[in-house]
Design a protein that fits this description.
71% of the residues lie in helices and 0% in strands. By secondary structure, the protein is mainly alpha-helical.
């Protein structure tokens, strides 16, 4: 199995919505973005699929060393071997890859965030970093496009957080800001016990409104001259907007089930977004 084949298998196995946005990319860009997302899956799995925190931290330290070695020209893992040929061509910077790992370390060491400012910092590390690197791979002419990608990353992560409240609670994590839980009179115990109340629904509607605003603001930042090159990102945004609306229509029933879109629906959204842009 080649490094590129390994990466392809990795993201297909994850069932990520992002896969659909890659379908219309050129072969070279598709290889680069697939390798990037495979890296994200590797470091995410290092935390989520490892029960011992010490082992998980050691895995993340290994990845830090592996990224440094890759930039020195000696990658050893299939994922870093797949990324390596694209480093200079797409200006993939080490600080963003290290930022992703820092986000995974936050997952390992922090299970609650006191306010939105601290949560936004987390979102930047786990999502904006990837957004900026993705925008570089997709191609851009205006530097404002990187700001769009940064904000889009936060918007998509906020939607992930909304979708995964129940799943995260089962892992002893609450990514909804603690001061907002207090404001809406929702206790941590209610979330950990997967108890849906009117107060919880009000809290989730607040999260929904903010995610929607971030998504709209991100799209407003994208310069017209880069809309065509950034179509893959626009596909991601369209899929996530549909997911967000599906969650709202389902009554924010995210504690006991994970709302998702069917593959056919994702493909339809992908096609409609491509022909519009």
């Amino acid at each position: 199995m080649t490094p590129d084949q390994y990466c392809q298998k990795k993201i297909l196995k994850s069932g990520s919505s992002f896969y659909y946005s890659f379908l219309y990319l050129s072969p070279k860009k598709r290889l680069a973005i697939t390798a990037l997302y495979a890296f994200c899956r590797e470091v995410d799995d290092a935390v989520d699929e490892t029960k011992d925190p010490t082992v998980a931290q050691n895995l993340l330290e290994w990845w830090k060393n592996e990224i440094s070695q890759m930039f020195d020209g000696i990658p050893s893992h299939p994922v870093s071997k797949a990324i390596y040929p694209h480093l200079k061509y797409y200006n993939i910077e080490k600080k963003y890859l290290f930022g992703v790992i820092k986000g995974m370390e936050m997952d390992l060491n922090i299970n609650m965030y006191q306010n939105f400012s601290s949560l936004e910092n987390y979102c930047w590390h786990v999502a904006s970093t990837v957004g900026v690197l993705s925008a570089k791979i997709f191609g851009y002419k205006d530097k404002l496009t990187l700001k769009y990608a940064e904000k889009l990353g936060i918007a998509l992560q906020l939607i992930n957080i909304i979708r995964d409240v129940g799943e995260d609670a089962r892992m002893n994590r609450i990514y909804l800001p603690q001061n907002e839980l207090d404001e809406f009179k929702v206790s941590n115990e209610e979330i950990f016990n997967l108890k849906q109340t009117k107060s919880f629904n009000s809290l989730m509607n607040f999260q929904y409104q903010r995610a929607k605003i971030f998504l709209d603001e991100a799209l407003d930042l994208l310069p017209l001259k880069d809309k065509k090159s950034q179509r893959a990102g626009l596909v991601m945004a369209a899929i996530y907007r549909s997911l967000l609306e599906e969650i709202r229509l389902d009554g924010f029933n995210v504690l006991k089930r994970k709302v998702s879109l069917t593959p056919i629906r994702k493909l339809l959204i992908c096609w409609l977004t491509i022909i519009k842009n």
